[in-house]
């Protein structure tokens, strides 16, 4: 294997050779540069599974309550065998601004599950301020990107 990048022009085609090798680690293949460092391809951010699961639970529970499947939060908590306070905290996630939910599902969370289970304002603008102010860039004022 050569130790440097080579470029050649064949007619109208540019051929670029980049020295690298493939290595198996823990059942995964990875690309290794000549100096031994890993070449990591950029990957799409992955959503926080715990946070997505909590959102899914919240919307499922809200639907069950809306459809009168359970008479109230106490009945729901008993059926799910979890505490009433946890059900209340998770149900609060149904009040999140749509753009905050979208960020969570896109793998760009604004906070962790523990932060979302704490009391937060119902007004979407105030939610954005509370959860997203630190992550927003100056050009995103008012709307999350």
Could you give the topology of this structure?
Elements: E1 6-10, E2 13-17, E3 21-25, E4 28-32, E5 38-39, H1 49-66, H2 73-80, H3 84-91, H4 98-105, H5 113-117, H6 124-132
Which structural class do the helices and strands define? alpha+beta
How many structural domains? 2
- Give the H and E element order: EEEEEHHHHHH
Residue fraction in strands: 15-25%
* Number of helical segments with 4 or more residues: 6
Q: Sketch the major β-sheet.
A: 3 strands, antiparallel
Looking at how many chains there are and whether they match, the oligomeric state comes to single chain
Unreliable stretches covering 5 or more consecutive residues: 137-142
Measured as a percent range, the helix fraction is: 25-40%
Indicate the mean pLDDT: 84
Radius of gyration: 24 Å
Shape: elongated
Strand order of the largest sheet: 3-4-5
Separation, N- and C-terminal Cα atoms = 43 Å
Number of strands: 5
Structural commentary:
- The protein is α+β, with helices and mostly antiparallel strands.
- It folds into two domains: 6-39, no CATH class; 49-140.
- 39% of the residues lie in helices and 15% in strands.
- The protein contains six helices and five strands, in the order βββββαααααα.
- The chain has helices at residues 49-66, 73-80, 84-91, 98-105, 113-117, 124-132, and strands at residues 6-10, 13-17, 21-25, 28-32, 38-39.
- The strands form two sheets. It has a three-stranded antiparallel beta sheet with strand order 3-4-5, with no helix packed on it. A two-stranded antiparallel ribbon has the order 1-2.
- A hairpin with a 2-residue loop joins strand 1 and strand 2 (13-17).
- Helix 2 (73-80) packs across helix 3 (84-91).
- The model is unreliable at 137-142 (pLDDT under 50).
């Amino acid at each position: 294997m050569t130790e440097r990048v080579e470029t050649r022009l064949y007619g109208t085609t540019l051929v670029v050779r980049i020295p690298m090798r493939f290595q198996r680690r823990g059942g995964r293949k990875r690309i290794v540069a000549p100096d031994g460092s890993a070449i990591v391809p950029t990957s799409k951010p992955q959503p926080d599974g715990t946070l997505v699961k909590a959102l899914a639970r919240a919307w499922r529970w809200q639907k069950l309550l809306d459809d009168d499947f359970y008479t109230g939060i106490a009945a729901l908590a008993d059926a799910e065998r979890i505490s009433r306070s946890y059900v209340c905290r998770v149900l609060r996630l149904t009040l999140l601004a749509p753009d905050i939910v979208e960020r969570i599902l896109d793998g760009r969370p604004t906070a962790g599950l523990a932060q979302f289970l704490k009391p937060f304002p119902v007004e979407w603008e105030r939610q954005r301020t509370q959860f997203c102010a630190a992550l927003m860039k100056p050009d995103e004022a008012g709307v999350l990107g």
